Amino acid sequence: MNQSKSVLSNALHLPNGxxxxxxxxxxxxxxxxxxxxxxxxxxxxxxxxxWADGGAGLVVTGNVMIDRNALGEPNNVAIEDERDxxxxxxxxxxGTENGTHLWMQLNHPGKQSPKLIxxxxxxxxxxxxxxxxxxxxxxxxxxxxxxxxDVINRFGExxxxxxxxxxxxxxxxxxHGYLVNQFLSPYHNQRTDEWGGTLVNRMRFLEETYxxxxxxxxxxxxxxxxxxxxxxxxxxxxxxESMEVLQRMSEIGMDLIEIxxxxxxxxxxxxxxxxxxxxxxxxxxxxxxxxxxxxISTPIxxxxxFRTQKGMEEAVASEEIDMVGVARPFALVPDLANKIFTGSYxxxxxxPIRTGIKLxxxxxSLLEIGWYEQQxxxxxxxxSPNPNHNVWISLLQNLIxxxxxxxxxxxx
Length: 412
Prior knowledge:
The chain is an alpha/beta fold. The protein has helices at about 40-55, 85-95, 145-165, 180-185, 200, 205-215, 240-250, 275-280, 285-295, 310-315, 330, 335-340, 360, 365-380, 390-400; strands at about 10-15, 20, 25, 60, 65, 75-80, 100-105, 120-125, 140, 170-175, 225-230, 255-260, 300-305, 325.
């Protein structure tokens, strides 16, 4: 297939004038390729050059944390200052080759910081995680108002450094139960001050974070957001509330909105508890996107479930979404976009990573994250992915590399 024949090859113009060369969006995946001291590594440079060479229009990094004392997992990259500027510049240069956009995803885990790496996790309120997660996570301490302001400033500083290093945009991670999502949720945010209560107050942390980033990077630098369509949790952030946040983010100038859903307690973004009809349709959050398109003009990305070229093209051609978000297939087919444009793409058969032992497979999402991180590590060493990588070898490698922390809940 000639590139011009695919709707996915059309450029996307963002509201601020930024042009993304095509409609394929490599969504964030946990790489775990930072150093033990949260510095970026040469493996990240190699990995992102491979993806830039692979043809995607926009590539988003995995979690980059804004506080070295608040990590989502071991080997996160964290940015508090300019100490790693040289390596950040190499990372940015590699990931922006061929006109590719490389956006840094900025995050704070809040309470979703495993006890093995977090002495005192913080959150909007002292509400512990449930659903059998108590053994992995300590009960969080509620942030005081001055700490909230400090976290907001950290987001702005990290964005400024990302821009200086050569990244072409940033994305605020406001989904999957991390700190921004915790503020939005009435279940996790039970504050009675200006940061809690009404949705306007619960949204304040996100809005002030956006404002601080915008102040630091200027009007022409793209800022995106990854937002939950809902938490799928009783008493949590609902779809109606998400629609209100979506409209507000569009009003204040957000440049691109990626839709996802779920959290550690209900990980629907991992394909867990997803209806069979939704899986067949490929995109998990398409119904939400259809409603959102009627409310805002900001471009929308849906991530989760896309596998076939036909499914991706139909989603964009229908104008229900503006970009197709793809994550795990890029760990197996780094040049997925180029393959689509040259007519050589074959649907990625991302088989479930299972041992066949129920006790271990209860933590299936953890097995899968570790297995896919090892694929990214291979690419980071200039090796080809190994789709036949044995799950038992993968588990052993994870245990050797991370010890008991391999069983700590982790998400993209």
